[in-house]
Amino acid sequence: MQLLQVTSRQITFSWTAPSSGNSPITGYIVVYNQSRKAKDEPLESVRVPASDTKVTITGLNPGNTYAFKVHAENALGRSGPSQDLTITTEEEAPANSPQDVRVIPLSSSMVKVTWKAPSPSSLGYLLGYYVGYRDLSTNEPYVYKTVDISKQERLNEALISNLRRNTKYAITVQGYNSKGAGPASKEVIVQTLQHDPPRSPVLKVINTSEFSVELQWSISEVSPITGTKTLSLNYFSFVQYLISCK
């Protein structure tokens, strides 16, 4: 069998007429199914007149692999199958957008975006996502970050950094494959934090005794630190604290 044409939803191939066995061939039967389906699932079939040795199979799904066989028929019955012809249809760009897009501000300059994969559309295999973001206080267009599925340790997640403090952004996500990008998700609005969470203090042991230890730590922060009360600390402010172990 010889492949003549393949698109995303149809395939055309031909074959050489076999020996008739001294009884004229009355027709051909082309049987096929998706190669990843269970073997016990019924095969699709198409009848082809004896005058043709070519067929176009339509109604296929993009980005799927199919196995084809051809049987010849005459007055005495049906021949055995030909060798398999395995063909993968071309892909189409994703038809559906990612679902359940959520955005969490992590700091004054970074947000975390998570989403769920688009609902299956049988149009091909996703290669990754484009995560778009734009500053709502300007007229600038979307900036896109590419998330390559093959290189991601955490699927369906992206960190967007270098954002402006205390600023609202619109976020969208769209999947892509070898044929292009699919539709974008609905915009999600998020605002970066005005202040950053405090960093971990740098702790030093200054002095120890039998019943006590004197600790010193430095805090490198310009943002307010909140607890039982709020302290505004400049860079490298030092605090000493005596802990009694008695």
From TrEMBL:
Q: Which controlled-vocabulary keywords does the entry list?
A: Repeat
Q: Could you confirm whether the keyword Repeat appears in this record?
A: yes
Q: Which SUPFAM superfamilies match?
A: Fibronectin type III
Among its keywords, does the record have Cell inner membrane? Answer: no
Q: Where is the Fibronectin type-III domain?
A: 1-92, 97-195
Domain of life from the UniProt record: Eukaryota
Q: What's the protein called, per UniProt?
A: Down syndrome cell adhesion molecule
Q: Which organism is it from?
A: Araneus ventricosus (Orbweaver spider)
